[in-house]
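User: quick one, sequence for these tokens?
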């Protein structure tokens, strides 16, 4: 019996183990850290061998194929050893896609992935389709494929997952945008990260709908990476496209969406909505059905999420904005004066692109992190007032002190959260709770 090993025992790894076992493989799961108890119990219940706290390299290297968690970098010793032996090393997405005949809509991009994925899922589900939600969101793709209950899957896919996709061929492949991010995983070479994102299109042919934002300069300059036989579906502010966005509306073929009536605001969300609508249409749903279901959509937390009003001051949780481009979109979404909270673990950010918007809109900057030096040095000369702290409570109190009726206090960090918080969700939840406690008592 051929052995498949799984590196990493999170949601995707345990799901991949279950699918591999159901397909008749011998399965061994190895995690260098600790496994959640519920995952351990699932593996025991299904008689799947596993280890924690390290990797049994010799056993793993005896595998026919290895499925790797996207959180494990390519430069680790175990990955180098696997590559040296020439063993097939794939992502859960690549592995699971082999075993389903369901239609697949796959969505990637540096920003807006989750909102666009949730929108597309909402449109397809509202149309009565049996829809699975997976990838970076929802339950394991592999586990859902094993259960075989869906007509279509909507997958949010990261560059790390794409790096280990080779034959993966979605029916609808979506690329939202490309801005510098995660460069520490790509030898600090932007071109490597770009190549990773374009892997979403690598197997596209005449049956594939390739949906992308045509105004993105990086995408435009790399269009030759998309197979010419694929069907291109474009979204644009600047030119007639399959979804043409103006200041007032999005125009589709025979349908339109008035932006004043849309549940999501800001130019970036106009793009997200347009892309999701085109993707759902390419997956087989009529524009009229899609637009009827749009007003019922509710976005995920931590994305420009209102979390309280105090004396006419609105507090907004945008903790998911972990890079500069996401903050750029957030700043563009408001006309009111802003008190901006930024900071955390800097990922090699270049903040110059934010300068015009900060000068125009930000009346005060609050730097929240263990090391705020870079933010203070860059923005200190261009903001009227700046406060640096490693205390979330002090940050909210300072915002409360500075704010007047009509202002917006915006947590949009541009940085990872790991200096003070477990993750961006924890940062956003703590911000919401602190706002609630300090302004509402």
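Assistant:
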């Amino acid at each position: 019996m051929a052995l498949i090993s799984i590196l990493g025992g999170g949601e995707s790894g345990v799901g991949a183990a279950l699918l591999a076992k159901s397909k008749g493989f011998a399965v061994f799961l190895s995690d260098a850290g600790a496994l959640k108890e519920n995952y351990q119990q699932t593996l025991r219940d299904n008689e799947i061998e596993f280890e924690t706290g390290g990797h049994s390299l010799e056993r793993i290297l005896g595998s026919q194929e290895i499925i790797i968690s996207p959180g494990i970098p390519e430069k680790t010793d175990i990955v180098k050893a696997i590559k040296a032996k020439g063993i097939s090393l794939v992502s859960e997405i690549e592995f699971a896609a082999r075993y389903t005949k369901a239609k697949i809509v796959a969505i990637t991009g540096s920003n807006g992935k989750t909102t666009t994925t949730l929108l597309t899922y909402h449109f397809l589900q509202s149309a009565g389709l049996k829809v699975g939600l997976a990838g970076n969101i929802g339950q394991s793709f592999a586990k859902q494929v094993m259960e075989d209950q869906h007509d279509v899957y909507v997958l949010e896919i990261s560059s790390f997952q794409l790096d280990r996709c080779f034959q993966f061929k979605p029916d609808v492949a979506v690329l939202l945008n490309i801005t510098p991010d995660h460069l520490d995983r790509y030898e600090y070479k932007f071109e490597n990260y770009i190549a990773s994102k374009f892997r979403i299109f690598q197997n596209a042919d005449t049956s594939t709908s390739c949906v992308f934002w045509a105004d993105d300069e990086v995408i435009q300059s790399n269009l030759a990476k998309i197979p010419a036989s694929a069907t291109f579906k474009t979204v644009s502010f600047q030119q007639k496209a399959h979804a043409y966005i103006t200041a007032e509306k999005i125009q589709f073929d025979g349908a339109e969406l008035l932006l004043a009536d849309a549940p999501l605001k800001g130019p970036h969300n106009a793009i997200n909505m347009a892309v999701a609508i085109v993707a759902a249409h390419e997956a087989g749903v009529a524009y009229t059905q899609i637009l009827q279901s749009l007003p019922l959509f509710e976005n995920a937390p931590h994305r420009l999420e209102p979390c309280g009003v105090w004396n006419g001051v609105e507090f907004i949780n945008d903790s998911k904005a972990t890079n500069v481009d996401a903050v750029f979109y957030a700043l563009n979404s408001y006309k009111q004066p802003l008190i901006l909270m930024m900071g955390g673990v800097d990922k090699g950010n270049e903040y110059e692109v934010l300068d015009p918007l900060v000068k125009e809109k930000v009346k005060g900057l609050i730097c929240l992190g263990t090391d705020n030096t870079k933010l203070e040095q860059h923005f200190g000369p261009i903001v009227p007032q700046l406060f640096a702290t490693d205390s979330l409570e002090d940050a909210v109190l300072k915002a409360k002190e500075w704010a007047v009726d009509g202002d917006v206090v915006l947590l949009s960090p541009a940085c990872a959260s790991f200096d003070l918080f477990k993750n961006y969700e924890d940062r956003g939840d703590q911000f919401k709770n602190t706002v609630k406690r300090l302004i509402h008592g």
